[in-house]
Amino acid sequence: MSNINDHHFTFPAIRGIQAGREYFVSMCPLGLVHKIFKFDEEELSPELRAQRILNKSRVPEIARYITNNPDNYVFSAITASIDGDVKFTTINNTPEAQRNGFLRIDMNSKIIVNDGQHRRAAIEMAIKEDASLSSESIAVVFFIDRGLERSQQMFADLNRHAIRPSRSLGLLYDHRNDMSKIAKLVALKSIAFKGLVEMERSTLSERSRKLFTLSSIYTGCHALLDAKELSDESNASKLCITFWDEVSKQIPEWEMVQKSRLTAGEIRKELLHSHGIAIQSIGIAGSQLLSEHPKDWKQKLAALKNIDWSRSNAKIWEGRALVGGKVSKTYNNVTLTTNLIKQKLGLKLSPEEKRTEEAYKRG
Hints:
There is one protein chain. By secondary structure, the chain is an alpha+beta fold. Helix 6 (178-189) packs across helix 7, helix 11 crosses helix 14 and helix 14 (331-344) crosses helix 15 (351-362). The termini are far apart. The strands form three sheets. Strands 1, 2, 3, 4, 5, 6, 7 and 8 form an eight-stranded mixed sheet that branches. It has a two-stranded parallel ribbon with strand order 9-10. The chain has 15 helices and twelve strands. The protein has two domains: 3-160, no CATH class; 167-362, no CATH class. The chain has helices at residues 30-36, 58-68, 117-129, 148-160, 167-172, 178-189, 214-224, 233-249, 252-258, 264-270, 276-292, 297-301, 314-317, 331-344, 351-362; strands at 3-5, 8-18, 21-29, 78-83, 86-90, 100-106, 110-115, 137-144, 197-198, 212-213, 322-323, 326-327.
């Protein structure tokens, strides 16, 4: 761990070489992170900064992640540049030990975070709520500062190849989110979706044999379930499976794809009912249907058969689910698609939905 003495920070460290330059890997107690690592929050123009502006709305969310998961949170290393006096002392001079030693950094040095500024701020916030976190640690990679241009280039390089996982893959691997667990169960066990869900990607190619994405199933189930129903994961999953299986009875093309009578690409190209906007809108309408007709909702749901899902029917879908012939999933488009489904199911529109519908008809 790091120590503070004799006007120096001392870190146990491993020395490495990258692009012909030294760098050092160490650990830092969480309680010292905000004291040692600085983040330049001055209102400087972008060309005079080496970092993005701190997005303060993200910090509480990351802090909650730490405090809500004290036994299994995980953080990647903070990357920092040192502008000041640095000395690395090896443990001894044997060849195998020359990479290991102690990194001494003058306390007057400026240590700037190149990558991990939101983690740094969130750690500080989390420790205020749970002081016991102070003794835990985070990995740190230190580079020697070579001026603003080098720091800016480091930021660009560190983020150049950073690609967020698809939403579907993130949901697939998320075992903390109850809603993602429900969506996975529905995707795997429902008759409606079995064998038809792309679990990794959030977009489907024309040649994909899948008809739905896990992210669209998640959104549809989330729209269907009332918040109170999430308290019982087993019953919530059963409700979703029952509902979507009943929906599939009204949309025969889904089963035809399962039995290889039609291809998924053909259905997605010609019809709207497997697209994310339709799944979400059916879920929203379904939530109201279950609430208002708890005993006869299945009979009411049969009206879905009366909807013409053809993308070629511009009179119905252009401006509602399509814009210029392409599927659009803006808030207004979701509302307008939901309105059509609700009207077919004999459900009343909310005041906001009515306003949106009237504006659409005037347009």
